[in-house]
Amino acid sequence: MEDVRHSDGRTIAEVVVLRQISAKYGSSACPLPTHGGRRKAHYEGAEPDMTNTDEITVMYRPVGPEELELLRQAGFKRWPPRLPEQPIFYPVTNEQYAAEIAGNWNVRDSGFGAVTRFQVRTSFMSRYQLQRVGGSHHTEWWVPAEDLEDLNDNIVGLIEVLREFRQ
């Protein structure tokens, strides 16, 4: 699947890094395109949010075949509701960790696993602390199931499938 890109051709990850550099060293260190004097990102394949200039947090999530089908049915715009036995939604911070879960656990349990990537407004995610649950790259957010609809309302762009694993 193709990377979601900023209107100037940069990937989302590149834009996030440039924004971090600009925040630390000033906007002249890494100028980003502006529209009407305000920084604004536009993404191919997704409707731009013309009312919000928030920073975004890039997240990853390993999924099995059932959750992937529910994502397809939602047009890759929203995460499906959690099941009663799933009180927490666990997006992770990096593709490596998501790939370990998808390739090892999802494939073992269902014969298929995929890694997804999505972006959420940082202003929303700032209420959740990062949790380290193993090695240095095993970091994730713990979002209560009752907050999932609010998280869905703060997704910027589409949920992308980056990698698939099969038995």
Name the overall outline.
globular
| Gyration radius over CA | 16 Å
CATH topology label of the largest domain: ADP-ribosylation fold
**Count of structural domains:** 2
How much of the sequence lies in strands comes to 25-35%
Instruction: Flag low-confidence runs.
Output: 1-8, 20-52
The first-level CATH class of the largest domain is given as Alpha Beta
User: In what order do the strands lie side by side in the largest sheet?
Assistant: 3-5-9
Order of helical and strand elements? HEEEHEHEHEEEHE
- The residue fraction in helices comes out at 25-40%
Biggest β-sheet: count, sense, barrel?
A: 3 strands, antiparallel
Counting DSSP E segments of at least 2 residues, the number of strands comes to: 9
Textual characterization of the structure:
It contains five helices and nine strands, in the order αβββαβαβαβββαβ. The chain has helices at 12-25, 65-73, 95-110, 122-125, 148-153, and strands at 34-35, 38-39, 56-63, 88-89, 112-121, 130-132, 139-141, 143-144, 155-166. A hairpin with a 2-residue loop joins β1 and β2. With 167 residues, it is an alpha+beta fold. Mean pLDDT is 79; it is low at 1-8 and 20-52.
